[in-house]
Amino acid sequence: MAKTIKFNLICDEKPVRTIEDLQNNFSIEDVIAYYQNGLLHRWLAVRGYGEELEKVSAIAQVDAMDIIKELIKIFDVVTDEKDVNKSIYILEYLRERQERYDCYEEKRRKVQSIINDHMNRYQYIVNEIIENKYDSSKIKAAINEIVKTYPRVLRLNYRNLFYTFKSNNCILAIMCLLMNEKSREYYLPIQETGEDGEVTEDIEHDEDKRVMYRNICMMISDEETLKNDLEDDLCTFSGHTDGYWKDLEPKGKKYMIISMDYGDYVRSAGLQGGDMDSSDINERFVILDGIDYKSNSIVNTLLYMEV
Q1: Are 196 and 264 in contact, with CB atoms under 8 Å apart?
Q2: Burial of 106 (0-12, 13-18, 19+ CB in 10 A)
Q3: Which helix (H) or strand (E) holds 193?
Q4: What are the pLDDT digits (tens) for 108-153?
Q5: Distance separating alpha carbons of residues 246 and 230, to the nearest angstrom
Q6: 135-170 core/surface letters (b: 16 or more CB in 10 A; e: else)
Q7: Within a 13 Å sphere around the CA of 207, how many CA atoms are in the beta-carbon half?
Q8: 145, 155, 180, 297: most buried, per Cβ within 10 A?
Q9: What pTM did the predictor assign?
């Protein structure tokens, strides 16, 4: 016949082998835990306390305070009822706090999982742009998804996004950021009017934005390099228009003007009174609806991109 393997309970950090040990070291927190996980029942069984086991098994209460009171009676523990009630109250408080914490942790893990998935998807889109850095259609679609689906991420990550594109020589992607009305505000100067009516640009007090903006201006300063970087996505036009407006691009399509020489003029297609010269255009990345162009030079060149 197999020998019964006995074990001790640990109550109040002391080993409990007998009912007397249990009485002398009765810890409400330990005993209620043993009761709830069934270890108290097993201990009574292997120690041969059949009568106590029967009484413990017959407890019908579910409230912790009532269960402890029954256990105190069963094991004939001498204690003050007020102390018991106080201890049970503390125990219940700790249990409820743990339950709230566990609930919070579960919600936090779920939220963190959602955030991780969100960030992974965002990073996947950024990587797609880098992998397709010469495909303007894919880049524009990806940037549009970023500004629509991940606006908060962009708000926090626009600096890193710019320098990631710059370090990977994704000049086309940077130009596409400027084409999008939502993302361009992170990189181009925005005029602000103070309480005194004075108009300033936000880059005057935003060092990060000022540095990124100057980097962008440097990118477009070398026309030949820019043509190599943007290839067919960069449109150019040179020609004397005899003082008349030339219908360069039709209304209904938007175009971002990259640069224009001194003495030339540009406007949205058919827009009377919308004339802009080089001081209005250069380093402003103005977006027009179609393009009318006027020049008195055969060598001046207009650089622009379709949005």
Answers
A1: no
A2: exposed
A3: strand 191-193
A4: 888 788 788 889 999 999 999 999 999 999 999 999 999 999 999 9
A5: 25
A6: bbebbbbbbeebbeebeebbeebbeebbebbbeeeb
A7: 0
A8: 180
A9: 0.67
